[in-house]
Specification:
This protein is of the alpha+beta class and 624 residues long. Helices cover 25% and strands 27% of the residues.
Length: 624
């Protein structure tokens, strides 16, 4: 007793002795905490400094044991390496690459739900009648003993056998086919297409999996020899034209290691196939093998069909990449999901939600979860409705929430929304480069008002939320605060034209697609703005700090609030507050009551906006 006490806000003070000079003393702190609940959701928060300079690694292990049935488990701040997820037990570790990530560790889980579970996190936006929301829907894990109804899968494997696939590539692809067919349940259907300049089909229609059909398919694939060109348009046309069995979930695993060289080769024409010539609404999971692929094309084919792209680098194994993706497509629970909102009377109120991402939800599989982000209007209660099909009939799940309970503690919500919104804008910019052949085409895009509008919005969101990408990382360099807005826009447009629009293949294109895919589907924060550069090396940004619901940029003048940087005119502080003074402490406790005390954690020489007033925190005896 007496050796351990609270000191101020969220601070523990203790006397530990004796500690010899240059010695080490191990301190172990154990405590019990009553967790907060919201409906069927339980929330846990482990406080931690948000400072990027705080690089002390925390080894975090999660072990949840419940008496009620355990549903989906979600962390908006850290990626989890799940070890066990059973009916009443969950064990996981924070991934090693995030052990030194700043900011608190947040964890939420659902209890008492047997089917699809749903919960809502809302953040109120100051000065508006609304804010940001995160809707989380999760499905239960299905074990081998689970006899409940599953959606049957119809899988079409489309395999590139052009000349560049010779050697280890074709061997790995054939092994991947074995794994996929082995992973199908008896009664599910499949077909196989191989292509170079010609397109060869194993069967005229899907065949049911059994020992005989699997043996025949493997023997047929084994005869494939790599040679010739790459007819992507023809192969995709054949795959999408195949009729899938009624009630099944149609999946295409489309693999290529090169650019289209035979048949129709225009990127825009091939991309249109997934939308205009896909009567069964097949999900096109694309695999780009190596770096000589059109990455924006593979991205678009996947994302527009509720699937996702995968890029296999030269040193990686194709078999493992395909097997990893297919393992996640086990036990489909809800196909073609759609989220809508209703009022208390059951009437649709679509105007209550805005700028919702993703635009189209992916299918939900066993032990899966989907995160929907957007903005809301008004604080009246609403009901989120999740519609989908289980293969035989439509399913409808309702979740009622009250936006009036929105919390300033949910600062992760607007930042996650900003990450996805920026990715959505970048995707539109990249697509504008389809079929660019001449410098005149680039000049036309550069001067297009729509292109300029997209870039301006990327810059605005980047500055406000501190979410930087490979195209806008320069915003965090010293001196940006004094750079005229026109120059910032010019430099950003240049970066987008030279990279996002012009580069369609090669390592410099793969890295863009990997970055975009991560951000477009991001469920956890990225406080260091880590991304891959054009050499696929991981880099991060050190001069932008995300604190609570604000972003601050390190400049020659110190840390500057991103909202001030985003203004057209230079803004001068109207009040100076000395760090550690009585006025400073008063300001600190005011912000602490709002969960925003972290704004002042950056120390002296910080310029920020509070309640419309621009304040500069200065060091004692600082007369600047």
């Amino acid at each position: 007793p007496a050796l351990l006490e609270f000191a101020g806000l969220n601070l523990i003070r203790t006397s530990v002795f004796p500690v010899p000079a240059r010695g080490t003393q191990r301190v172990e702190l154990r405590y019990d905490l009553v967790l907060s609940t919201t409906g069927d959701r339980v929330d846990y928060v482990l406080p931690r400094s948000e400072s990027l300079d705080y690089n002390v690694p925390w080894d975090i292990t999660v072990d949840i044991q419940t008496k009620r049935r355990l549903g989906t488990v979600y962390s908006p701040t850290h990626e989890l390496d799940v070890k066990t997820h059973e009916t009443n037990r969950f064990k996981a570790d924070v991934t090693r690459k995030q052990l030194d990530q700043p900011g608190p560790f947040r964890l939420s889980w659902m209890v008492g739900t047997s089917g699809v579970s749903g919960t809502l996190f809302a953040y109120p936006e100051s000065g508006t009648n609304g804010g940001y929301f995160l809707f989380l829907a999760g499905t239960p894990r299905r074990g081998p003993e689970d006899k409940s109804k599953r959606i049957s899968r119809d899988v079409v494997l489309v395999l590139d056998r052009s000349g560049s696939m010779s050697g280890d590539k074709i061997v790995q692809v054939k092994r991947a086919v074995e794994q996929v067919l082995a992973g199908l349940r008896p009664g599910e259907t499949f077909n196989i297409i191989t292509y170079n300049q010609w397109v060869d089909v194993f069967s005229e229609k899907p065949v049911e999996k059994n020992d005989k059909t699997v043996a025949q398919a493997l023997a047929w694939v084994d005869e494939a020899r790599p040679l010739g060109g790459t007819n992507i348009h023809g192969a995709l046309t054949s795959a999408l034209a195949m009729e899938s069995p009624k009630g099944s979930l149609p999946l295409v695993l489309f693999l290529t290691d090169g650019l289209p060289t035979v048949g129709i080769t225009a990127e825009s024409k091939i991309r249109e196939l997934g939308v205009t010539s896909n009567p069964s609404h097949k999900r096109i999971f694309t695999f780009g093998v190596g770096v000589d692929v059109n990455t924006p094309l593979l991205e678009a084919l996947a994302r527009e069909s509720r699937a996702r792209p995968t890029f296999v680098l030269p040193q990686e194994d194709v078999e493992l990449a395909v097997a990893r993706v297919f393992a996640g497509l086990d036990g489909p629970v809800l196909a073609s999901p759609v989220v809508s909102v209703e009022d208390a009377s059951g009437h649709p109120v679509p105007h209550r939600l805005r700028e919702v991402l993703p635009r189209e939800l992916p299918d939900l599989f066993s032990d899966d979860q989907v995160v929907v982000l957007g903005r809301y209007v008004g604080d009246a209660p609403v009901t989120f409705v999740l519609n989908g099909t289980d293969g035989e009939e439509n399913r409808r799940f309702k979740f009622s929430f009250d936006f009036s309970t929105a919390s300033l503690g949910n600062t992760f919500v607007p930042r996650l929304w900003a990450i996805r919104q920026i990715a959505h804008l970048i995707d539109a910019i990249r697509r504008s480069g389809a079929d660019v052949r001449y410098s005149a085409d680039l000049e036309k895009i550069r001067n297009d008002p729509r292109f300029k509008e997209l870039v301006e919005e990327v810059v605005r969101l980047s500055q406000e939320f501190g979410v930087l990408t490979e195209y806008t990382a320069f915003l965090a360099t010293d001196g940006t605060v004094d750079t005229p807005p026109r120059e910032v826009q010019r430099q950003t447009r240049k970066n987008f034209v030279n990279r996002a629009v012009s580069v369609r293949s090669g390592m410099g294109s793969v890295n863009q697609s990997v970055n975009l895919q991560k951000d477009a589907t991001r469920k956890t924060l990225n406080p260091r703005n880590a991304h891959y550069d054009s050499n696929m090396e991981s880099v991060s940004v050190a001069n932008v700090q995300q604190v609570a619901n604000r972003a601050f940029y390190r400049t020659q003048k110190g840390w500057v609030d991103g909202r001030i940087l985003a203004r057209e005119q230079s803004v001068q502080p109207v009040r100076k507050v000395v760090y550690g003074s009585a006025e400073f402490l008063k300001l600190l406790w005011t912000l602490a009551s709002r969960g925003q005390a972290g704004w002042l954690s950056l120390g002296a020489d910080t310029i920020l906006e509070i309640g419309g007033e621009v304040i500069q925190v200065t060091a004692p005896n600082n007369n600047r």
